[in-house]
Amino acid sequence: MTPRDLILKTLRHESVPAIPWVPFAGVHAGKLVGYNATEILTDGDKLFSALMEVNKLYKPHGQPVLFDLQVEAEILGCELAWADNAPPSVKTHPLSQTKDIPCLCTLPEKEDGRLPMILDVMGRMKKAVGETTALYGLICGPFTLASHLRGNEIFMDMFDDEDYVHALLNYCNEVAIRMARYYIEAGMDVVAVVDPLVSQISAAHFEDFLEAPFTRLFDYIREAGALSSFFVCGNATRNIEPMCKTRCDGISVDENVDLVAAKQITDRYNIAIGGNIPLTTLMLHGTQQDNMKYVVELIDRIEDKKNLIISPGCDMPYDVPVENGIGVAQAVLQTEEVRAMVANYVAQDDGIEVELPDYEHLPRPLVEVFTLDSATCAACTYMMGAANEAKSDFGDRIDMVEYKFTIKENIARCKKMGVQNLPAIYINGKLKFSSIIPSREELNQAIEEVL
Prior knowledge:
Elements: H1 3-11, H2 28-33, H3 37-42, H4 44-58, E1 62-64, H5 71-75, E2 80-81, E3 89-90, H6 115-129, E4 134-140, H7 142-150, H8 153-160, H9 162-185, E5 190-194, H10 203-223, E6 227-231, H11 240-244, E7 250-252, H12 259-268, E8 272-277, H13 279-284, H14 288-301, E9 308-312, H15 322-333, H16 335-341, E10 366-371, H17 378-394, E11 399-404, H18 408-417, E12 424-427, E13 430-434, H19 440-448
Parallel strand pairs: 1-4, 4-5, 5-6, 6-7, 7-8, 8-9, 10-11
Antiparallel strand pairs: 2-3, 10-12, 12-13
Helix pairs in contact: 4-6, 7-9, 9-10, 14-15, 15-16, 17-19
């Protein structure tokens, strides 16, 4: 059985002799060969060489070709802000001031944006490693794409203009279907629909707005001869069961979700689940032994290994030390040997001390936004966007700060504050919004209450 077979059989819910592993090395792939994020996301030759290095070093069963949720948004008119160590972020939202629905004539064509480069690299990867490695084509999910086009207004629209939201989501779903078709034609075995903002809405809103388009999308992928994965970041716990009802082949979650508990739900629907190695505390800032021990213990915590894929919780940070990626691969591929190696290993405490504000004696309300990184995490981008709108409304009457989880001191701050899930908004030291992006009115009201 090839590594590729292991992934395909797992997503087809067949018994397999080992647990497959998928390193979601997006921009991190560039780090391995000395290219920055922008270079590998715009230059096909550099992207291809980076992907081949991932394949050589991390020995994956499955591998994404590109991890960039802004490809579709760029084609549809969003301006992007580019970075050296992260995927681009959406800078402008073409529908922020209008409730137009784009015409179907604007659906992406193969010649649009960066698609020619992406499709070419997919073909090259298929020829180079496609016999032994399951290749993933990642597309932007319809809800996150709708947010890219509409901006933070989409969250208020879900309350006061449901018809518009349904219409916009239907259009964005057509975009997703078009992209899935291109990627399947280019040889992708698995189409991963990545929709981080699914974690930021209620189960009721998921069922009202998203169940129908996602079900249609996953049915299309299946009919086109590929397998599917529903990839969501953040605390998607409340939406795991609604996600299962969309008939996807697999679900991928990050560290905000209890993988053991989530698997009990996905098992009832006979759906594979993947995850959820922590990105920053472990892969970025941990030691190789930390990573190896975590993976072994994660595997041990899951009794039924069927329908299981081990992977990072989301796109690996650019600066993840290569030895950590190799350590994770070893822990999955050689679990028994690694278990013996780390049996007596005890992680060291960083010993970082942080001082919290004196919340009882603040000169003005303090809005603290805890994010993975608003420049790289879509859910965090829109949570931060909500906070920025509040700052614009209240001006100097409030203070606002973002704490990015990619910084060690902020990890210590999260621990001291008791932050459980990201993104989250605290006001005067008290949790107000966790993994739910507030509307402008909701956040402003919360601020008014403490003014």
